[in-house]
Amino acid sequence: MDIPIPSIKPIYHPSPTTPTPKSKSVHTALQTLHLQPHPEGGYYAETDRHPLRIPNPYSQDQSDTNTNTNTNTNTNPNTDTRSLSSTIYYHLTPDSPTSFFHLNRSRTIHSLHRGRARYVIIHADLATHDGPAPVTSFVVGPDLDKGERMQWVVEGGKYKSSYLLPDMPSENGDGESEGLLITEASACRCISRDTVVPGFEFEDHEYLSRQTMERLLPEEQYRALSWMLKKD
């Protein structure tokens, strides 16, 4: 951790009633790349989905989940297969500056195009019965001298969130931003000796609930990070 968890706080506070004006470059990106609002925050557009379908590596996990909860949340009729791969543009902007905590089953590879943001990862897959889940955080951006990352990987089974940072922060940490623009490509865990690359499906995605966060984190960390939960 490059900063204490209590120091992880939002920079931009868009009003729920008054729209935040979009800069020319943000407006151009949204229009040119055909970006639409993403349910987890920010904007996105799928840019590629391989036509080949492969066996769904998560079908047993989903079956177990549905059995345990007695509900079936799958909406995709092709639950037995997945696209070989998929890629999206993802854009955080001052009017939608936060990607709320969510988990993907697949490994996701991120590449920076422009902007800066802080990522926070809750390693739910590393939690134990007698210990909390580890939390890591890092900044993505173009300043390699300061340790900012231009490419990063988040493994499946971890909750990730991110929030927009200024392009050139002032001494007190605020400043203007033209938004964070990245590419996300889905990849998944190894099965036997073969690595498969299934495309993203919302059935393989879940938001972090307040109850799960309370279970995974100590109270102090929960209080510090709960603002990054998706609102009901």
Please give a handful of descriptors for the protein shown.
single chain; Jelly Rolls; 6-stranded antiparallel beta sheet; 4 helices; 33% strand; globular; YML079W-like
Descriptive report:
With 232 residues, the protein is of the alpha+beta class. The chain has a single domain (38-59, 79-228), classed as Sandwich (Jelly Rolls), CATH 2.60.120. 15% of the residues lie in helices and 33% in strands. The chain contains 4 helices and 15 strands. A 6-stranded antiparallel sheet has the order 1-2-5-12-7-10, with no helix packed on it. It is globular and about 50 Å long. This is DUF985 domain-containing protein. It holds the Pfam family Cupin_5. Residues 30-207 form the DUF985 domain.
Distance between the termini: 29 Å
Number of strands: 15
Arrangement of strands in the largest sheet: 1-2-5-12-7-10
The second-level CATH architecture is Sandwich
Q: By helix and strand content, what is the structural category?
A: alpha+beta
Quote the CATH topology. Answer: Jelly Rolls
Note poorly predicted spans.
Answer: 65-77, 188-196
Helix content: 10-25%
Q: Give the radius of gyration.
A: 18 Å
Q: In terms of quaternary structure, what is this?
A: single chain
Strand content: 25-35%
How would you state the average pLDDT, rounded? Answer: 85
CATH top level class name = Mainly Beta
SSE order in H/E notation? HEEEHEEEEEEEEEEEEHH
| CATH homologous superfamily title | Jelly Rolls
The count of helical stretches stands at 4
| Main beta sheet | 6 strands, antiparallel
InterPro entries: Cupin_DUF985, RmlC-like_jellyroll, RmlC_Cupin_sf, YML079W-like
Domain DUF985: 30-207
Region (Disordered): 1-82
Protein name: DUF985 domain-containing protein
